[in-house]
Amino acid sequence: MSEVFSARTAGPAAEGAQDPDLARARDGDDAAFTRLVQPLRRELHAHCYRMLGSTHDADDALQDALLRAWRGLARFEGRSSLRSWLYTVATRTCLDTIETRGRRALPVDLGPSSDRAVVGDVPLVEVAWLGPYPDAGLGDGPAGPGARYEQREAVELAFVAALQHLPGNQRAALLLFEVLGFSAAEIATMMSTSTMSVNSALARARKVVAEKIPSVTQQQTLRRIDDARVREIVAGYSAALERGDADALVALLTEDVTWSMPPLGHWYHGLRAVTDFAVQIPLTRCGNWRHLPTSANGQPGVGCYLWNDGAGAHLGWSINVLTLRGERIAEITSFVGADHFASFGLPASLP
User: For residue 47, is pLDDT > 70?
Assistant: First the structure.
């Protein structure tokens, strides 16, 4: 993909084209290259997550993309901004990754919900699961004036899950246009295709995404709720689990609430089924819980810790992402796995 590095994208010349760090980096100064890309790392990482649906994949893709950029920097001609060029490299890297594996899924993508608690549910290791995104520090980002989605809206679970139903080229076109504000002509050059093809991909992608995401985003919902009230909901959810209080938990949920736990395949829909699951599994069989509040995918989240006799401590068990409707919880997505905690800056265990 040597065409990635020719940087013949449309648009204004880079403001940093005369940056002395750029000249030093072209001469092989890796410290200068690090200084150039550091301000863009966070937004590039978020872009890779949106493309791939996994923080771990995003880590690998960003590392690979920056290595490609470093190796090809001498051929960067400055006909576009450095940011545009790096997005080209990152997008191509993600498309290569998408070609090698299937889309990432949530349990709701695999089959119907369960009416009763499934005891002894086991992880489905053959499925590539969607993962949570630690959004601490994620800002608005320098999107163009045509961008439709806010940066935080564009990491919400419903949006990222919907993206996974798109082919790679449609996914890339939608993100570059609707989230990052690149023009169709710019995207065509970045993806080595025609403007007509980009517009066609955008039309198909918009249709699929519109059918799969709610009309009201989590950012809109959260803006309507006082921050203190959101903290109360999260604290109430955590306290109910720690006390084993089913009534307190149910009082926080909508009638059509869903609860899923990737990589476990079974999921639950509706207050009756979710209550049965909660009573049978986390409130009774699991044991003693502790929790820490966090933020994931632009939504309120909870780090859940389960007591382990062997360790003599509460060990990280899952990152629970809460989707709110009004002041109630409409979806609980419990991403099970201790490996999620480090990326959220959460401790591996609690006393």
Answer: yes
